[in-house]
Design brief:
With about 180 residues, the protein is mostly helical. The chain has one domain. The chain has nine helices and two strands. A two-stranded antiparallel sheet has the order 1-2. It starts with a helix and ends with a strand.
């Protein structure tokens, strides 16, 4: 961003919005929900700043904010499948990368990535390309995980504990074991 004040306002506005969203409440909201679009806009702006500015943004996010980006990621992947939208998939995968900027010990990030691979294939997209494009905005550790996982040919929903359910509103992805 050209203006430092504009950038700092973006960070403040982002944190203000994220602080107003309860993780559990957001998780249970129907798709689509207004917060999905708000987080999508945060991610759109996130992709427009420099790598150094992205580091600043990531440094300002609290763990509960990261949880919101993780939830958003899977909601966006679901919207991508329902709407046949590569844009929702890309945004969701960048949200996933933001959620996993710092990969917590014992987190198996490949479990979460399986849905994105599935949806990319469902949309006729090359998962490796989709993931590589999103990995540009990720921290080095998660970017490496994303690139490696997306090139695997053995990824299925069921192998990673997911089910695709048909609902009156469209597909839904449910984690069935853990």
């Amino acid at each position: 961003m050209k203006n430092g004040n504009t950038f700092h306002t973006y960070i403040e506005d982002t944190l203000t919005l994220l602080n107003q969203i309860e993780v559990v409440a957001y998780y249970g909201k129907p798709l689509p929900y207004e917060v999905d679009q708000q987080i999508n806009m945060i991610i759109t702006r996130f992709t427009a700043v420099t790598p150094a500015e992205r580091e600043q943004i990531q440094g300002a996010l609290a763990p509960e904010h990261r949880s919101l980006f993780g939830i958003y990621g899977h909601r966006a992947a679901t919207l991508a499948a329902r709407e046949a939208s590569a844009d929702w998939l890309r945004s969701g995968l960048i949200g996933f990368a933001m959620a996993n900027y710092i990969i917590p010990e014992k987190r198996k990030v490949e479990v979460g990535m399986a849905v994105y691979v599935h949806v990319a294939r469902k949309l006729g997209l090359d998962p490796a390309k989709v993931f590589a494009d999103a990995a540009v905005y990720a921290a080095p550790a998660i970017a490496a995980e994303m690139r490696a996982f997306s090139q695997r040919h053995d990824v299925t929903l069921s192998k990673y504990g997911w089910q695709e359910l048909k609902t009156p509103d469209g597909v839904k992805y449910k984690f069935t074991y853990g």
